[in-house]
């Protein structure tokens, strides 16, 4: 009968102590790189598999990570989750993924459910409906490791990773101005979100530097983040029904970008009269009609960085008191011919 190899078997074969083998397999800092390599190669040759239940009992960990995102169908978040899982599974952690649909009530329920299941840590991108962060602050104070990605908040001092939203929007708006646009409307997410404020600030800077007056009547916030197509369609309809119509629409959200294109197509607008630029990580964005210039974020890399930050919090033997907020560059794909 087949009997799987154990840490004791590996230790006996390599003339090492079981504790040394165990620490080497867990990438312990006190074990040399040469020893780790020898142990890893031998463990692979005998098809050694760790026992997550035994590890969990010994270390009082569940080896699971909770992930809370607004929406799984969103290309950006699906790519970020792929990045998270690529690192998590390699390190022996499982993921439990939940979505809030941009509802504060559902976010609260999901976070509490994950905490009650004793996840070792939480990765979260905030819901557009949440303005009170007390429930997260309480969990953080109780010692649950939390890392924010994409939609971050200032109220909790921990590791965070997001895009360089200010510069992304600044460069995107400049590209519209370079194409001859001077009446640039904005479709944005909920105003309390970090990404909304940072992207709006970049848009405003580009206007100021080019002596283009800011026009509040050209700004629309879609509080449901694009999940309600009717909300986006009404916003687009309002922008296009005025006497002085915009010559461009800048969209500061991935999901709203797709909903805006759908609304423009339904309204049968003339693509020669208005330029559209939005954030989008869709793999088929180049096929959209009407065409969409877009800002693409490094979603997969953001997921990798976020989970690496979380594992640092989970596995540190000492309290971490200094944190960083990483900002990743973006790429602009512009349909630049003047109107």
Automatic annotation (TrEMBL):
<dbReference type="Pfam" id="PF00356">
    <property type="entry name" value="LacI"/>
</dbReference>
<dbReference type="InterPro" id="IPR028082">
    <property type="entry name" value="Peripla_BP_I"/>
</dbReference>
<dbReference type="InterPro" id="IPR010982">
    <property type="entry name" value="Lambda_DNA-bd_dom_sf"/>
</dbReference>
<protein>
    <submittedName>
        <fullName>LacI family DNA-binding transcriptional regulator</fullName>
    </submittedName>
</protein>
<keyword id="KW-0805">Transcription regulation</keyword>
<dbReference type="GO" id="GO:0003677">
    <property type="term" value="F:DNA binding"/>
</dbReference>
<keyword id="KW-0804">Transcription</keyword>
<dbReference type="Pfam" id="PF13407">
    <property type="entry name" value="Peripla_BP_4"/>
</dbReference>
<keyword id="KW-0238">DNA-binding</keyword>
<feature type="domain" description="HTH lacI-type">
    <location>
        <begin position="5"/>
        <end position="59"/>
    </location>
</feature>
<dbReference type="InterPro" id="IPR000843">
    <property type="entry name" value="HTH_LacI"/>
</dbReference>
<dbReference type="InterPro" id="IPR025997">
    <property type="entry name" value="SBP_2_dom"/>
</dbReference>
């Amino acid at each position: 009968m087949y009997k799987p190899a154990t840490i004791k078997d590996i230790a006996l074969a390599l003339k090492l102590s079981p504790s040394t083998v165990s620490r080497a397999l867990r990438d312990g800092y006190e074990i040399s790189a040469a020893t780790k390599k020898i142990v890893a190669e031998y463990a692979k040759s005998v098809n050694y598999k760790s026992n997550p239940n035994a590890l969990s009992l010994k270390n009082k960990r569940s080896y699971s990570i909770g992930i809370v995102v607004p929406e799984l169908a969103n290309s950006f978040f699906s790519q970020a989750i792929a990045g998270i899982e690529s690192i998590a599974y390699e390190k022996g952690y499982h993921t439990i993924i939940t979505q809030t649909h941009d509802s504060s009530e559902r976010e609260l329920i999901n976070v509490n459910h994950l905490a009650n299941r004793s996840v070792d840590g939480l990765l979260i991108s905030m819901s557009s409906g949440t303005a009170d962060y007390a429930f997260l602050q309480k969990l953080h104070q109780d010692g649950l490791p939390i890392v924010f990605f994409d939609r971050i908040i200032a109220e909790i001092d921990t590791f965070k990773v997001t895009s360089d939203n200010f510069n992304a929007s600044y460069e995107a708006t400049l590209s519209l101005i370079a194409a001859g646009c001077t009446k640039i409307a904005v479709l944005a997410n909920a105003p309390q979100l970090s990404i909304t404020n940072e992207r709006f600030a970049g848009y405003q800077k580009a206007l100021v530097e080019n002596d283009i007056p800011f026009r509040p009547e050209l700004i629309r916030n879609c509080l449901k983040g694009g999940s309600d197509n009717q909300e986006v369609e009404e916003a687009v309809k309002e922008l296009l029904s005025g006497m002085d119509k915009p010559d461009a629409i800048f969209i500061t959200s991935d999901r709203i970008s797709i909903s805006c294109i759908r609304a423009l197509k339904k309204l049968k607008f003339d693509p020669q009269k208005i330029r559209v630029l939005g954030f989008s990580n869709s793999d088929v964005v180049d096929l959209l009609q009407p065409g969409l210039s877009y800002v693409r974020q490094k979603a997969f890399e953001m997921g990798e960085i976020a989970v690496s930050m979380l594992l640092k919090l989970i596995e540190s033997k000492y309290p971490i008191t200094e944190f960083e907020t990483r900002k990743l560059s973006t790429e602009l794909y512009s349909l630049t011919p003047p109107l």
